[in-house]
Amino acid sequence: MLLTLFLAFSVSAQDKNEAEQLFQAMEAKLEKAKSLDLSFETLWGEAALRNGQILKGTLVASRENQLRLQVKGGEKNEVVHLRISDGAKAILVVEGNDDMPKPKKAPKNLFPKYRTFLARGGVLLALLPPSFAGEQNDFKERLLVSDFKLGPKEKVGERATQRVDYMLDIKGQKAFTCRVTLWIDLKTGLPVKRLVSDGGLTWFTESYELKLDGKLDPTMFKLP
Predict the structure, then answer these.
(1) Strand 191-198 relative to strand 173-185: parallel, antiparallel, unpaired?
(2) pLDDT tens sequence across 191-206
(3) Quick one: 2-221 is in which CATH superfamily?
């Protein structure tokens, strides 16, 4: 009996270590990247897997603090969120704001910020200004991950992936604790899909098409 319990504990600890190491390798790969080119689709709402709302977007960014994040949604598939930085100046346009704002000084950490959200919590969380109003914060210290568990190897579309489960907490917000399921591409080591749940209810799912260190079109970062 004791041997059985010991073996079960050893396997569980080994799976936990493997899951955390796989996650850390994925995050390290993102941190080494000089640029990222992402297309994503987010399904969210009270019943995200059944009749939630769909957001589709692109996120292109570089270490030169250049960034373009465009998100479309709603019945008319209109732009609901647009953020552009040319490295020095930036604009942010959100749904309901019909006037083009004047460019302001770009935050210095746009690339690591969105890179961290992509690795740990998903792009949708980065669109929530009340939760993440301080652009100068270290987001790796705010988005806290723990309690890693190794799931099965699964196919997501045509891609072979390894499922990793973990807990996500936002530092300073005690009410925010979520269980995250992340599918990591076994070939590229990059995120493919994420499911975020709260209290057993699915909050949102995101799917990703991600390329690192490709050639980016400089006109994408031109301010209006």
Answers:
(1) antiparallel
(2) 999 999 987 788 899 9
(3) Lipoprotein localisation LolA/LolB/LppX (2.50.20.10)
